[in-house]
Amino acid sequence: MKKVFLNLLKQPITNSYLINKNSSTLKKEFFYNLSIIFNSKNYLVSIKKPVNPKSQYTDTYAHRASQSKTMNLSFKKIANKLKKSYKPKLSMEIGSNDGVFLKNFSKKDIIAVEPCKNLAKITNKKGYFTYDKFWNVDLAKKILKKKGNVDLIYSANTISHIPNLKEVFKAISICLSKDGVFVFEDPYIGSVIKNNSYDQFYDEHVHVFSFIAISNLLKIHKLRVIDTEILTTHGGSIRFYVAKRESKYKISNFVKRIYKQELKKRLDKFSTYKKFSYRVQNSKRKLIKLLKDLKKRNKKIISYGATYKSATIFNYCNIDSDLIDYVIDTTKNKQGKYTPGKHLLIKPPCDLAKEKIDYAFLGAWNFAKEIMKKERKFIRKGGRFITHVPKIRIIK
Length: 396
Ligand code: TMP
Prior knowledge:
Elements: E1 2-12, H1 23-28, E2 31-39, E3 45-47, H2 53-56, H3 69-86, E4 91-94, E5 110-113, H4 117-125, E6 130-131, H5 137-147, E7 150-156, H6 165-175, E8 176-187, H7 189-195, E9 207-208, H8 211-219, E10 223-231, E11 237-244, H9 253-264, H10 270-296, E12 301-304, H11 308-317, E13 327-328, E14 346-347, E15 359-362, H12 368-374, H13 376-380, E16 384-387, E17 393-395
Parallel strand pairs: 4-5, 4-7, 5-6, 7-8, 12-13, 12-15, 13-14, 15-16
Antiparallel strand pairs: 1-2, 2-3, 3-9, 8-11, 10-11, 16-17
Helix pairs in contact: 5-6
The chain binds thymidine-5'-phosphate.
Residues 67-68, 305-308, 329-331, 334, 364, 366-367, 370-371, 374 line the site of thymidine-5'-phosphate.
């Protein structure tokens, strides 16, 4: 049975940065209701009514995974680890973005799948063969026919974006070789619950995975999890190593441990998610109060990172330019545009101290360490960061 536990109200498509605030542009802006459900049969947490992927992954898709140093390092590390462990003859990445993972492979050893045509163009230009298509059974059959079985399939922050997981796993089982490994990583529901990071829910995160949910879903396709890792990336992710049931791999001890841990944390119970939703409502009240109090004292507040996650917060908490002056972001094609829904101006990074900024809300809280290091001068001059994870606070 599927039951709603959290209602994050009317939300825009997070990747739709507005080029201006003309009435005709605002009229065209698309909103949907972001309600989150728990499926008590397979334990999957998902958006009740996902947005059509064709309106999300278009040829104007803004996010560039290679923008962050943290992510560059993380992709390099996992690419090297996978090459060493599995020695794949042919590898594939699903959701290759601008090639931040691909670049760790030689061009002849890897193929890519990326439905956003603007991004696929980038990697094709670099010489990495990229299918500008959505991942599905038809594409898997096409790849099998043209290239043969794939030994290593990797995907980061993509599988959770796809509404039909049955199709995803069926397509994987079609082209994965007998002892091939499918490795994917996405935000982890255990971290969301722990950090109160409800901003992990936005249109692209159709599902937020647990181990128990994924192992249930894989069974139907004769696939199984052979290993898992809990990661710090994106504010807490889970990495699954999946192989065919008849493959040579043994199941790691960590898999058994995480299964027990999740049951202990009651990730299989609706009541866990309902309690979380009360904490989210509390977080909203506290954030609004803090920002309003600071504004009353004439403080200048900006948001750091025009993230998709912060779009959920701003729209759920109704935070607009009365509370946050503007947003800064390093991504060139976000700069000069307006955030979806609440229409805050996005500016390039600046000298925060020189601009007399008092507080910066950590929209990109998952990069807190990297940002704090970069903004030492701002902190030294009395500037402060605000975060909502795991609770609303000014970072001292
Ligand atoms: P993400 O959490 O979806 O990866 O998005 C992070 C966003 O934050 C991305 O648009 C880049 C931006 N950002 C900055 O503007 N400055 C920074 O120092 C970092 C790490 C990220």
